[in-house]
């Protein structure tokens, strides 16, 4: 080994150059911790469920706005839709809003590694698969991450242990 400051020959195990006094630093091997499949994907799945639920909540907001506009059209007697449509849109908007709240809850639970979030996300993933295209993609991804038996064991290891006290 040679000193890169003065060019003198230095023995392999020596920490300082005998000629100029330059310090040599030993290289420390870096080891990377291999994350499991569940650890790699659970946080992303939680973020995706939160974003998807925000989109669903926007759909609920659209139902409420359309219902309000239709109510005003009916109230002022300019013709328009039958009178049962605005209350029906309110009911649909409320159901959609409740479903989006479950999605927000699942996303928050996955990000915080809550023990109950895995099962809630699996159930929501099954239902989301019928909502083409985003729900289908999210449902398949959620089931791929959380459904296998090995994933259950890995998730339980990383999940927060809640005390019964």
TrEMBL record:
Pfam families: Zn_Ribbon_1 (PF13240). The keyword Transmembrane helix applies. InterPro entries: Zinc_ribbon_dom (IPR026870). Residues 2-22 form the Zinc-ribbon domain. The chain crosses the membrane at residues 45-68, 88-111, 123-147. It comes from the Bacteria. Keywords: Membrane, Transmembrane, Transmembrane helix. This is Zinc-ribbon domain-containing protein. It comes from Koribacter versatilis (strain Ellin345).
